[in-house]
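The freezer alarm interrupted the setup, so I double-checked each line after restarting. Inputs confirmed:
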Amino acid sequence: MSETGQPAPSEAFDRDQQRRRKRLAVLKTAASAFNRRGFANTSMDDVASALGISKPALYQYFKSKQDILYECHLLAVQHGEAGVEEGQRTRGSGLDKLLAYVGRYMHGFFSDLGSCAVLLDVYSLADKHRAEIQKRRDGVTDAVEGFIARGIKDGSIVERDAKLTALFIFGVLNWMLVWYRPSGPATPAQIIETFVSLLERGLAARASVLIESEPKL
Amino acid sequence: MSETGQPAPSEAFDRDQQRRRKRLAVLKTAASAFNRRGFANTSMDDVASALGISKPALYQYFKSKQDILYECHLLAVQHGEAGVEEGQRTRGSGLDKLLAYVGRYMHGFFSDLGSCAVLLDVYSLADKHRAEIQKRRDGVTDAVEGFIARGIKDGSIVERDAKLTALFIFGVLNWMLVWYRPSGPATPAQIIETFVSLLERGLAARASVLIESEPKL
DNA sequence: ACCCCTCCCTACTCGCTAGTAAGTTTTCTT
DNA sequence: AAGAAAACTTACTAGCGAGTAGGGAGGGGT
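Predicted 3D structure, all chains:
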């Protein structure tokens, strides 16, 4: 009926496809620069010349500089929320749920977006956007604290302040955005394995992980 | 001999003293704002009105906005270096040295400067200052990695990548600057205790800490 | 009483950059 | 081939904020 009648624009190089790819390239380039040098220290001209185009070309894909930042934050918070869902889905102790969250979040962070996400510079967002991001972040924080509180109750996590423990974990995770470069020496898999086991040993009430390595001497 | 002959300006209200106190107030106010909202989002007018004075008054104490940032970074890196010295002074395993570093750093962070330190926005520094700060930070990083490597060798730290482990720790420590408020619910002592024991358990080859809590069930 | 020094104010300048206007090249359609 | 739409360019505008000029108030020394 109301279909526009286009014969499914076929091939891999139709207009919209290209447009989306270019848009993503802008997002990635900008995010990388934002993470490296900071949002305010990155001009739109910087982003443009990094892509080999001129500034106004950027405005075909994003309404404003803040809009780019907003989408970066959206991606980051979506990964957080995906991690929370993973934790809720996971059957087991509070610790199991927590580690499921951490694993899912890190996996998302590394895989699908190089490092499009930004965490700092929330304040650079327009009030309306900032409120939304803050609220969704708070949701993630609450859920993670919930996993920890549950773990403390069920005995899988050694007794400790749930809020402080959450801040400990967020520190580890958020700092990745500052130092991680896809070109760096460590592979995502190594990073995930190291960090998860550091957290697991630090939190676990039972020293289950100790088994895997014989004591030296 | 070459003393200026002033009869030691006596009391608590001599000129220089007041000046230094005002200067410190500027530094603390600015640093707090920088940490909260970011360097670029904080105008000199903001800082001034937070102190109840006008912008040009600030320029009596600091040459430029960047100068304030530079001193914040100096304070931060000095605490890092003090931690490294503490670690080097400490006799014992690599783990002991590492934990001495962490403890000293956190203690310095909380006590003497509320939160004057800034870590992000290194890029907002002038090139010359940035180079210095980066270099000194690299020194701290190397030393911490050294503690970890030593701990891996002497068996006090469970085998793991020293660089990644250092990044894990720096994440925890650096993120404090973002969330810590002196007015917050947790006391510095609680935070130090919780974080140090989380790190110790995560890193230690022997589960020495387990002794302190009876297994539940 | 006078001067001078410190401190701080109001009222500017000037550079930098986000965003826009208007024209040009490219690319798809028919 | 013609024409229209999309993509991108150069050349601007406008506003924000760091830093400054220059003046005024207060206090301590002589």
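Quick read of the result. Residues 43-45, 55-56, 59, 64-65 of chain B lie near DNA strand D (CB under 10 Å from a C1').
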